Amino acid sequence: MEAHLAATGGRERGPVPPGLSALMGDQRYRALIQSSTAIVFRAGPDGTLLEGWGTNEYSQPFLEAYLGKGWIDAVHPGDRQAMLSLWTKQQEQAGHWEVDFRIRRTNGKYEWAHARGVALRDPDGSVREWVGTLTDIHARRVAENAIAARDERLRLAVESAGLGIWDHDYATGETWWSETKLEVLGLPPDVPPSMEVLVACMHPDDRAKLEERVRRAHDPAGDGRLADEFRVRRADNGEERWLSSSGRVYFDLEGVPRRIIGVVTDITRAKRAALRARSAEDRFTQFASTSPNGCICMDNRGTITFWNMAASRIFGHSASEVIGRSVEIIVPELLRHAHGEGEAKTAFDDVGSGRSIELVAATKNGSEIPIELSMSSWSEGEERYFGALVRDISGRKQQREHLLRLAHYDATTGLPNRTLFWEHADTRLASSKPATVLLIDLDSFKDINDTLGHYAGDAVLREVARRLSELVEVGQIVARLGGDEFALFVEGQQAEAEATALASQLQRRVAEPFVIGGQAIEMNCSVGIAFAPRHGTTSDELMVHADLALYSAKESGRNRSCVFTPALRLAAQRKVTLASELRRAFEQGEFELLYQPQVDLDSREMTGLEALLRWRHPERGLLTPSEFLPVLKRSPQAEFVGTWILRQAINEAARLNRMGHSLRMGINLFSAQLRSGELPTTIGRLIEEAALPAHLIEVEITEHTILRNDATILETLHRLSMLGVGIAFDDYGTGYASLSMLKQYPLTRLKIDRSFVQSLSDDALDRAVVEAVVALGDKFGLQVIAEGIETEEQRALLLEIQCQEGQGYLFGKPQPIADILSNLNGLTVAKVGGGPGR
Fold first, then answer.
1. Cα 478–484–488 angle (5° rounding)?
2. Model pTM?
3. Exposed, middle or buried by CB within 10 Å (0-12, 13-18, 19+), for 499?
């Protein structure tokens, strides 16, 4: 049989019975098979693969390899005999068969498959042919094997740790103890587990305490956790043992306990070792109490574990006040951020060297004193401990020197601070010699603090300071001015190219990856450059101009450097002036809205309008957003102007609706409106006052807004969606928004940016982007509209791509609402649906 199944590849195939082929000709059955992940096969009575159909990734190669041939040679040798036995058995038995086995893929690898089939028999009972399915189950089997291996590892780990497990189900009343717990209590395996059995084994003096902890754990107002140490007397020999038990009570939604589960372990050896250690500690305490020097012991986390009388005399704290607290209690406030990096690190490095170092320490009353410190260390098990002998070496001169350093150096990084930097700059500039100031700001440093915490932020600052210090040469000083801002002062004449090359060197060094607490961090920086005497002769002038150059570098995309020019000062002045004019413009009512039609590309019927902001400047005439929007959106007026736009546009949409023109109104939002959290309330009030259906309003957001991944913005958009307001994603495809954001945000429409539409006819890549966006819209259930349509050719191409709506100069420029109304006379208006698409 095996040889017959394996060697039929050279035979000519007989006539194909019409049944399965006829079904495959039926469109419904073909669609059913195409939607399946299995291969459907038909084989001859000898196992020759006659026909097969399938659509998964390995169907075609498999069928091409084995069609018209036997298949037994493809079965894994370890499964082959079982397959042959099954085949032989099914020759004689009716009914279907199924089996899991490993089969060789065309790449030579064996993978798991599931076969299921049935024999079609002639009237005499002989097999005419076999039909069935072959399904790839390799991933599932690999996952099941991984789970089994994981469970085995867990079982072995619990056994090796000596953990006894206990479990009680309140619903069924069943209690289960593991073999380890029974062994710990000295109980035979056949003893039925129960609370009564445990209490009988417990030391009488510990029963009440454990029962009280169990009672508290069953209080639904708590967290249900239970942890205690107690003594038992083994049931088999009466030996007293110490046990540690921890567990948790699990409650249902009504607060009724449903289950309690936990672990127990024998800690007798550790308890006895602790008693021996306590005896040694008593001898040490007696010795240290007579020492004239302060004696302080701490663990490897800096927690104080011992404090003698001499230490109390030096620092003013009693032992009861400091034991269990951090040794930072004697570190001055200004030095605590650097504790473990500066002087304290030096002390720990000198452990066992026999040397003493001098430090400034803080006393209980807040004063600072100089001390001499000698360190030693020892180990207790896996833990390392430290001891310090302290002598008070108070002296005015030493104290003044330390305070002077604290006043001129940054506590976090150890670099000169702003005060020392300015003093240095003023001194050098007073000699009228040329110099260069490079102002360095870390890009996105706030994100590090917000996501990883201030400890990680401080570590980044220290590492940046170290890297910058490595680049400092004679005649240069680097300082931390505060926050994430550093400065470099370079003496002597420097060409502009030299300064920018130095800035690039600083940026490359800062950009090298960090590893903070096992977390890889990438950091870039922007640099502003100013020269003396060209850009100023005082430190104030140079710093102001370097700061303007830094701002320009960050505005240009960050991770850049910029040299100050007078134009930057003029631009800054213009922004200040423009901000003032914008405030006046809003107060004087100089803003107005124009409206651009949105149409059905096939019928040209108008489907909506987009409200566009303009500024009617009293001197410069009508200004487009590019001339004022960058300043407006960062100004305090942004939210007020945005609310005004909403009110105007909603009222106009309501007026059109009352006239019988149910047009969708698109309204652009400022980031400030989304972040305030009040936007849904505002829009809800405005549409109610205007008696306008919510689905006729569509707010537009940009990629830049949602890439902030702000929870407040996401909540605001969901609240708008619940109102029935549409949400359009403007300029889609020009930024870095991911596909996951299309799922996360309640969008109803994608707007294809005009940059892709303009070159649609002659740029294959732009066409590919438009086709992709339209396809995404279709798959995500989003409507799609194209912007910037100016020619009939573009309209035709968009229709060919299945884009149904568009806007642009081909259909109308932005215009006053009066012009829209006059153009609507005689035009057909497409009916807008009853709500957002998704």
1. 20
2. 0.45
3. buried
